[in-house]
Records
---
Amino acid sequence: MSIRTITFDAIVVGGGGAGMRASLQMAQSGFKTALISKVFPTRSHTVSAQGGITCAIASADPNDDWRWHMYDTVKGSDYIGDQDAIEYMCNVGPEAVFELDHMGLPFSRTEEGRIYQRPFGGQSKNFGEGGQAARTCAAADRTGHALLHTLYQQNLKNGTQFYNEWYAAELVKDADGNVCGVIAIDIESGETVFFKAKATVFATGGSGRIYASTTNALINTGDGVGMALRAGLPVQDIEMWQFHPTGIAGAGVLVTEGCRGEGGYLINKDGERFMERYAPNAKDLASRDVVARSMMMEILDGRGAGPDGDHVFLKLDHLGEEVLHSRLPGICELAITFAQTDPVKEPIPVVPTCHYMMGGIPTNVHGQAIKLSGGHEGEDQFVNGLFAVGEVACVSVHGANRLGGNSLLDLVVFGRAAGLFIEDQLRQGMTQYEPTDADIDQALARVRRWDESSGGESVSALRKELQSVMQNHFGVFRKGDLMAEGVAKLADLRERISKAHLDDKSKPFNTARIEALELDNLLEVAEATAIAAEGRTESRGAHSRYDYPDRDDENWLCHSIFDPTAKKLGKREVNFKPKTVDTFQPKARTY
Amino acid sequence: MKVSIYRYNPETDREPSMKEYEVDTQGKDLMVLDILALVKEQDESMSYRRSCREGVCGSDGMNMNGKNGLACITPLSQVAPGVLEGKKPLILRPLPGLPVIRDLVVDMGMFYNQYEKVQPFLQNNTPAPAIERLQTPEDRAKLDGLYECILCACCSTSCPSFWWNPDKFLGPAALLQSYRFLADSRDNATEERLSKLDDPFSLFRCHGIMNCVSVCPKGLNPTRAIGHIRSMLLERGI
Ligand SMILES: Cc1cc2nc3c(=O)[nH]c(=O)nc-3n(C[C@H](O)[C@H](O)[C@H](O)COP(=O)(O)OP(=O)(O)OC[C@H]3O[C@@H](n4cnc5c(N)ncnc54)[C@H](O)[C@@H]3O)c2cc1C
Ligand code: SF4
Ligand code: SF4
Ligand code: FES
């Protein structure tokens, strides 16, 4: 079957913070690049980020040091973040953040005119010895919005070629597994096209929609991970899902950790500030995994609030109206809209909610995608032609638990790094791998399957079922037998989804077709998560098991690698060799 | 409750029509976006845009019982009296004044074009310092009420001047962004920006009708921003 081919030097799939930072770099280089996004770029999920971007720019504290930030990040990752990558991010970070200011990002300001920084969870001075740090650069509580719009504006200025409302459906690879580009659908017309490129950069974001309750946008369906897995490529640490302590109960909408940074705290139904018991030093600003678990313990021990005792409260009223309206205006709006609660007067009902995918496509600091020579084991090898940046990638700077504010930094630092690297490679001459018609045909099979479906279950019912399996079997606390049940349910779902029905086969702006294609990706991410979670027999960071309550450094101080072909879980070494500082050795993690 | 939705598929329909649906809300004050999801479960061929479902991405601007707004942060009780109680139908139409692609999805091209025309990016030809460009909290405060725009187009598509001249009058959203950069102490392209606006149409077609202000879901005030630019232009003229 022949479809139209559009050729570029490089294509970026995804117009969030990571994708647009990469495309900006490449647009400035003069190579022929395009950015494909399933939504108009400023509608990407990055727009929702609230609290800020963590970086040692030494504004709040003139003595701040990127090495302290590095220490916090390594500790936060529960020691399976790669230290060379964390070193790079924390060290290059200030340059990348100052660039954002020069591009026009409207950061909040200090009296000195510098960028305002607020305290966030897991931050310390002097390698954990100097008390709480304030390292998160903020534009009120709309930092993601400010960042995303600024990057879009700069891309306009630099003439990036956008394919907005185009949906990437599948990777195209040649017989040797080299990536040649993607199949994408123009949502408006329904046309299916082959985008051919020497470099394909995935910046497709997270996949929080595998859970029933999530802070993530409806479009966060893990398309990049799904495409990689279907192409037989592995994912790393995919069992590591962050549950954010403060999702609004019932709605799932997030209220930023910056609320606690500004002095808010959590209380149980008795009004007790319970974090003092779980984390005597950092209290409410302990790492997210620690706070989320503590909240669940309160709820499970019967100290939850509400008729069903299923949430706790975030108290902010003591900060006063002025602080709330100047520092946290967006939060006040969200609380009124989604919790019918005015934080100036009453506490907000909150519950740990699925928030962030620490795992993803394994890459190095240049964004080059990595696979293992033996599927789930063996040597690192590059996947020629494929790159990944942002939440879809696992560099890994977040390890088993991401610190607040580190994702936005990850986006701009590694989006930029990948852009620089690809630019350089293109200059040296990169290979364009050529697919055969059969290769393209194979990539089209899935789109065709839905278009030819007749009869079968509906997409929305199957999606709901999948989300509830993940919620009930792979939540904050996990257990072997419960997870085994979940894995079996997902296997059944795979069978049923492969026969599901797309009723509307029309072409123009058919969102039902897009939702069907997204369902396949949700399933891939869910299954990888489930098998990896069952396989990692320890508790580390966000992955917490009743049956293996302790961290097991002897067996699991490593990345997990899920190989979709054999459906097997293997291990990959963590990097403990930063270039300019001494290794941070694993220690017990207390806050 | 009854929901009436504007339906049009260019592939099969010669002209648009309103289609009625019956939705069970169990008496809950759901958001309009939740209602759309329930309708889509019944009829997957009904298309609409959505992403963040929390009022920050600007995807789901639409016309609800005659007023523009975001479906995801508009509860039934706020659409119009009687809608929540099921006494009146919920009536959903695409944003007015822009071509319809399908159902509730409009072609935003003209709206984005006007945005691009105001050069919505910081311009500063002095060399950048090694750190950030300093800005006082007072200067930064001038950007509040401007930078928060989510490009939802609720304002411009409720503006009669924009309906008549969508190609020549920039419209409230683009003008708000124009002022966002005029007001930024870090931007030094003021003169160039102003001279581009100094014609009978780009800005001066605004007649202060304030529809834009009353519909903006982010509580922004394009009319005031337009007023500020107007004074800057007049001062410059003297
Ligand atoms: C509510 C909330 C608040 C947050 N606050 C913070 C914070 O304060 N600080 C912080 O550091 N982090 C925060 N995070 C995390 C952070 O916002 C995200 O991790 C980050 O924005 C992800 O950016 P991204 O560029 O990787 O992807 P996204 O911004 O999610 O963008 C993904 C892009 O890929 C495109 N795409 C996806 N699939 C396809 C496809 N198949 N075809 C074409 N295009 C596709 C989409 O259109 C989109 O443009 C927050 C997260 C949430 C949920
Ligand atoms: S005030 Fe001006 S911009 Fe706003 S609706 Fe009226 S004419 Fe349009
Ligand atoms: S000014 Fe308000 S209504 Fe207009 S596009 Fe911006 S957010 Fe939407
Ligand atoms: S879905 Fe994002 S604004 Fe409504």
---
Amino acid sequence: MRSPQEPLETDPLIDDPDTRIVVCCGSGGVGKTTTAAALGLRAAERGRRVVVLTIDPARRLAQSMGLTELDNVPRPVPGIDTTAGGELFAMMLDMKRTFDEIVEAHADPARARAILDNPFYQSLSAGFAGTQEYMAMEKLGQLAARDAWDLIVVDTPPSRSALDFLDAPQRLGSFLDGRFIRLLMAPAKAGGRAGRKVMSLGMAGLSLVTGTLGKVLGTALLRDVQTFVAAMDTMFGGFRTRADATYRLLQAPGTAFLVVAAPERDALREAAYFVERLAAERMPLAGLVLNRVHTSDGAHLGAERALAAAETLESRESASDADRAAAGLLRVHAERMRQLTREERTRARFTAVHPRVPVVEVPALPEDVHDLAGLRAIGDRLSQTDGAQPFG
Amino acid sequence: MVSGKGGTGKTTVAAALALALAEEGRRTLLVEVEGRQGIAQLFETEALPYEERRIAIGPGGGEVFALAIDAERALLDYLQMFYKLGGAGRALRRIGAIDFATTVAPGLRDVLLTGKVCEAVRRRGPDGGWAYDAVVMDAPPTGRVTRFLAVNDEVAGLARVGPIHHQAQAVMRVLKSAETAVHLVTLLEEMPVQETADGVAELRAADLPVGGTVVNMVRPALDSTAATPLPAPNDLAAALTRAGLRDAEALTAPLLSQGREHVTRLALEATQRDELARLDLPVRELPLLPDGVDLAGLYRLARLLRAQDW
Ligand SMILES: Nc1ncnc2c1ncn2[C@@H]1O[C@H](COP(=O)(O)OP(=O)(O)OP(=O)(O)O)[C@@H](O)[C@H]1O
Ligand SMILES: Nc1ncnc2c1ncn2[C@@H]1O[C@H](COP(=O)(O)OP(=O)(O)O)[C@@H](O)[C@H]1O
Ligand SMILES: [Mg+2]
Ligand SMILES: [Mg+2]
């Protein structure tokens, strides 16, 4: 069925030399990584020098892109068609490694070692909800600063909410640069600026706070945190500043956001939040990629009629093999038509609220996408603007 | 504990399981920890406060209670319980300590959440019996669940003495006991099944009891096609005409290509089933409800869970 919406044209987007960053976002499992990889490959095969930053690719997809080692630097992807003069690099984000690298780059070796060995740092860098988002932003900033590629395609972490990608870095940044962590540091540098701040809270407040924390966290943990904070001292301010800088990069005219969603209620609800949020942040939305859409070339035969026809065949006195097979195929078709109707209904709800968001539909392939051929097939569909072409 | 890859149906299955376990005269508690009000949405009620309240009667006649744990409130409860410090909440919040403890400090949040669940598990009612016969938790996704459940081992190591240390050990005893089971929800697709296999390995390595897998959203198999080789286009066209369809010619190609896709999908699902079988765990199944999960659908899933061996 035709959509009333403007189609999303991805080829002009990725061909445009002014497009420098494409961010694929959306809720978990909808196809962000697949879309990012497919667009990167297509852009490279159309002549651009591209790097794709993937976050958590399916194992076989990673292998097919030559991402077998996690070394946190972009590697050339073998097997691509370079006749148009393009190149493709890909990397898989290693969040801990990225965090370690920031520490190493901003502290002298002895201090860096102290931080890296600190148990509190180790837990923080391995696991804080938001570390992955922060490090994805950080890596994006690094790749952009290197200026070695003319297009960066970014995948985003499998957050429970697509908005985490925008919010988590600032949350972590403001924690690392914030008041509380300075307060923890106070005993380590009594009389310093932070110390004076604490004094202003009143002595009663201070002893209540550190005393309570000592009891709750255990003094050993509190000591780890304090040592960590003291060692990180030189880096304070930097986290927030860098998170802010990357945030501005995302608002720049060379950036385009693609919101990826499956035609399901929850995924489209997330997509709608994201679209609204991007508008509020004045971040440039290119459009919605509706992925894993079911289509049918026989859509003029509805589910009800297909089922009725199947029953007619099955109830024939002397049903032949062909009758039984045809009945089976009609039932498969009825199932497909039901799904199609559901998906259309869900999509219509999104369209009603966001009629001006350009959309491109990518059909559900019968198999997972785990090689360059599969990515090319997705790329082809991403560039077709007539919406409802069936597959194969 | 119900975990699984994101979006596979953890919340739905946890809720259905809580309903299923509520036999006549029994009580179950359904707990959520991610602050998303998924339970309220499923049961079509207003947002749950941080308080255990009855939300349903299971198909077996027992009562289902629900609790949405709020990490911040849980922290204040703890401060009050262990240190009579509930009143310090405001001061702590002002300087960002509460934020630190509940969102940033690695693991602390998880300690609070698992602690609260274990408290409910061990609680006694006025008659001296268990307050709840079963506690079902909508746990974090597979990628995080082992760390979440094992956090108390980590904490017992970090905070080497003191009440937190003892509390952490007590929680681990409950979680590692034979009374706990971590069930993993999956779909018959490659990534969720892979994640399930990885999750089972991690849970086992951490000594946490794995229950079984729940294959969710199983689509109807439509065996007739799988069993029959696809017909020749002419034969198909003739059969469609016999069925009274006038546009038979135009339908053969689409029906055949959809049939091929269906066969491919069945083969893929069979491969994933084999992968799951290799885990050597009980497998339960729930069908894809074509119109999504409303309250009636949830009860249907609960009855289907009851009908399977546990
Ligand atoms: N058996 C089923 N049949 C049809 N739809 C289902 C079924 N199980 C779950 N769903 C639907 O799938 C979606 C995801 O389910 P649910 O929210 O339970 O997943 P989850 O694993 O808790 O997700 P998250 O990782 O986001 O917490 C919901 O829209 C739910 O209604
Ligand atoms: N259009 C499609 N057709 C078939 N399978 C798809 C399609 N898009 C994605 N997939 C599959 O869905 C799974 C999840 O995709 P992925 O890109 O990893 O999602 P995300 O990055 O959003 O979590 C992968 O196994 C992928 O191969
Ligand atoms: Mg991904
Ligand atoms: Mg959930």
---
Amino acid sequence: MTGSSPEYRPGAYREAAAHSLRETPMVRDSVGSATRTFDSLRAHAYADVESDRWRDWARDVKGHALTHLDQYLEQAERSLVRNGVHVHWAATAEDVHRVIAKVVETHGVRTVVKSKSMLSEELDVNAHLESLGVRPVETDLGEYIIQLLDEPPSHIVGPAIHRSLDDCRVLFHERLGTPLDSEPDELAAAARAALREDFLSADLGISGGNFLAADTGTVALIENEGNIRLTTSVPRVHVALVGIEKVVPRFEDLAGLLQLTARAATGQPIGLFVSLIQGPRTGDEVDGPEEVHVVLVDNGRTTLFEDDVAWEALRCVRCGACLNICPVYRQTGGHAYGWTYSGPIGAIISPGLLGLDRALPLPHASSLCGACTDVCPVRIPIPELLIHWRERTVDEGRNSTAERLGMKAYAGLAERPGAFSAAASALRWTPWRAAGRALPVLSGWVQERDAPSPSPRSFRDLWREGIE
Amino acid sequence: MRVALFVTCLGDQFFAEACADAVRLLRHVGAEVSFPTDQTCCGQPAFNSGHRREALRMMRHTTQVFADAEYVVLPSGSCAGMVRSMYSGLSDTDEARAAAEDLAARTYELSEFLVSVADCEELGDGLTGHRVAYHHGCHALRELGVSDQPVTLLRSCGAEVIEWSADRECCGFGGTFSAKLPEVSAAMADHKLDTLPDVDVVTSADGGCLLQLSGRAGRRELPVPFRHLASLLWQGVAGAEAPRGSA
Ligand code: SF4
């Protein structure tokens, strides 16, 4: 997102990725080393437990909740209301904006402290708050950094993962006056000091929600910095934005899900802070908000759920493990994907949430290596879903005519062995560089690589002559 | 053991000598090798790019061609993965599914066949003193679970298989991906090449990966030799005199 970067939208993926590789190679370095570190921590944390069994279990719990979504959402609503929480149903981002505007108006809110929430990014909550004349303050350190830089997050868990320590030193020096050689602890302390004021003056705290237990009406949140605890307990009012796919049947389920998510995300046995929010402050309690709102957000999830194959993506717990291991994501980080959710999970939910036409070419931004599925804590078959969206692209006629005709012709040849081998031999001797101008497939290849040298004789010929 | 060799599109045109070496290896372990000449493409390029109908046509053709084979062996992890792991799910009728599952049960990647079916752990000593890096193609690794077999065989020929931090990371080939998103694909290959230890040769059970890595190394003028696993293993059997593989 520097200089004259291409537009921030999925459709610009190829240009944005190429731009990032060419103009900001340090992004590749920062993202590459951070993701490899996260992934190796995850691998150790998985190895310490029976992670295969945990993952089967988590897949089943989330799958069960999704296939009984209405039932558990209604139960969750009843539980939340019983706990004194205001429950709102939001079909779209605008619905969410209206709920927030009402709270802002009712309580005369001027400053909002926010904890990291990808859903809030998806819904453009900060821009909405600003349009209301309210100052949103991101309190997660990574989010704080990118808010200062006016950039979108580039990773689900580590939003500033594309920035190096030196970038942060310079930024904090300019904005907070810290010395240029500050250590990470000192930078964090400076941010904390600045944020302390905001926590004390904010009238509203906005958070996301990792899980929502239907039986007890509990919103569960995981974190490491303590800022979520403050966001949800210091201001007078707390609004939690929770995607409808976050509901799980029982409070008991949280134990396993919270631990597995932390292991997958950062390799920790559990987040340093776990907040289990049950409702507003009651009679004898000394802290906590006076008013708690839970906004249950659809924003395209029901449509995704109706897709027989792609619905599995809704099990996602947003741990970021698939990003960390993804060799495609590692080259650019998240900005190239042009939307809130990047990497493998972004490529499979964006067509569902945004519509396939807006999401293309993200389902193609994968070599189908399958590393993501190896690590996903809820066992989403990511490559299968990528292929599913590619098939939908073909079915809806959204791929190029050249590709469509080419594949048809290719399949026709493959049914006629004589013609197939003649055509294959011809391709073998195609002058790739020259033909590249006519054939996009070849031009893409020779742009970055030398053309392969064909065997002097095909295997077919060798076989005919006899192999010694 | 009667083995029908499925050389695949890339094998036929770009790794013909390596496929010939695969024939030699299979005969060396006592297999009777045939080459059903009606074979064409497994359908993977169509399947992976969402052209399910076309992939299905190629699957039908392939299951017919290999209907009578006792074993089907491919010197390609990703095409073997397509046949063994994807055909069943691709099937549109019970009959097609039965044929697909039957074929899957008889299908092997070359090194996997040598170790798991032909029970071969020792080939020769023709690679003594060679420092080799082995690239794990993603589909051999994940769809077939082939990871130890090639390394075991290379070591049995005397090769020193050198540790490579990125040996299991995707090379960026991904079929049409390499042409649709060439910049990212090349950056992926660069990571592989930039982490490569000092070796005499880089090998893999997948021709596609080798074309990607050697094509990128060539563009960057890196003097790294690449050879198909089949050729390297045959050199392991026959020594330096072995007919040279093509890559
Ligand atoms: S898809 Fe799986 S691995 Fe990726 S963020 Fe979601 S839960 Fe984590």
